[in-house]
Amino acid sequence: MDEASNKPLVRPSQGVHLVVGKRFLEGTNALLIPETPDNRVLFAVPWHNHVLIGTTDTPLTQHSLEPVALEKEIDFILETVGQYLQIAPSKEDILTVFAGLRPLAASQNNKEKTKEISRDHKIIISSSGLITITGGKWTTYRKMADDTIKSAIKNGLVPVSVCQTNKIPIHGFTTVVENSHLDIYGSDAEKIKLLQKKNGWMQEQIIAEMPYTKAEIVWCIRYEMARTIEDLLARRLRILFLDARAAMKAAPVVGEILRKELLQTEEWKQSQITNFLKLAKGYLP
């Protein structure tokens, strides 16, 4: 909008991941395949008592809020990783398949292959003084922010100052690791344990196949602003990204807790369950 003649700055690329049982890669070490037949990288990583396998790199011209894995992407991952694992996984072994979009910093020389497009973020300062940052990824957000501020200082757009946030721990910071699934909550884990202690029913697991308890659901609703079944089973507990069928099984239990906590109606709960089951089916291979 600042420079009407500018070319698009972002090029979407789809990445697909498969999740299978831990028997396919026992232990704690990850497997990295540094060069696939088409010169990409593939990995298999132990993740929350499962194995995460990926990723693909498919350039897209259109995008959606819920990207769908292409059959050719699933086949590519299975065929490639099967050459390196002692037990080759098949489609029947896939617990969940999910796709995401990378906002790659678009090439300005019309390169088509996403592997030739930079994974790094780019900072552009236009003649008006507008700073644009494009590309990058969640895991480098701190570096992206740092580079942006330094660019602003270098160009005289903000005054020079010493960083005040580089040593501030984020919420939940802790050095205590108990090798429990609650470790991801950091210091909040003790508060969840207290909920379980005060309310016996909160100690119950949501589903028998996984360790997640009802206390975690209550915690996320009361203190982390979770408001839908999707919120809870996808973004908070990750169950949808570990085992889609298990997530579908957990939906009614989670929906009932959500209904009570938010003082909603039975009709509202059923609508929540219906919407989530529809979404979850998209994660089945």
Written account of the structure:
This protein starts with 9 loop residues before the first strand and ends with a helix. It has three domains: 108 residues, D-Amino Acid Oxidase, Chain A, domain 2 (2-Layer Sandwich); 49 residues, no CATH class; 101 residues, Helicase, Ruva Protein, domain 3. Helix 3 packs across helix 4, helix 5 crosses helix 7 and helix 7 packs antiparallel against helix 8. The model has no long low-confidence stretch (mean pLDDT 92). Helices cover 32% and strands 16% of the residues. The longest helix is centred in the C-terminal third of the chain and has 19 residues. With 285 residues, it is an alpha+beta fold. The strands form two sheets. Strands 1, 2, 3, 4, 5 and 6 form a six-stranded antiparallel beta sheet that branches.
Secondary structure layout:
Elements: E1 10-21, E2 31-33, E3 42-47, E4 50-54, E5 58-59, H1 71-81, E6 96-105, E7 122-125, E8 131-134, H2 141-154, H3 189-198, H4 214-223, H5 229-236, H6 239-242, H7 244-262, H8 266-281
Which descriptors apply to this entry?
alpha+beta, Helicase, Ruva Protein, domain 3, D-Amino Acid Oxidase, Chain A, domain 2
CATH class of the largest domain: Alpha Beta
Shape: globular
The CATH H-level superfamily of the largest domain is D-Amino Acid Oxidase, subunit A, domain 2
Output the number of helix runs. 8
Q: What's the count of strands?
A: 8
Q: DSSP strand (E) fraction?
A: 15-25%
By CATH, the topology of the largest domain is D-Amino Acid Oxidase, Chain A, domain 2
Return the string of H and E elements: EEEEEHEEEHHHHHHH
Q: Assembly state here?
A: single chain
Going by helix content, strand content and strand pairing, the class is: alpha+beta
* Estimated radius of gyration: 22 Å
Report low-confidence residues grouped into runs of 5 or more.
none
Mean pLDDT: 92
Give the N-to-C terminal Cα separation.
40 Å
CATH architecture assignment of the largest domain: 2-Layer Sandwich
- The number of domains is 3
Q: Helix share of residues?
A: 25-40%
The largest sheet, given as strand count, sense and whether it forms a barrel, is: 6 strands, antiparallel
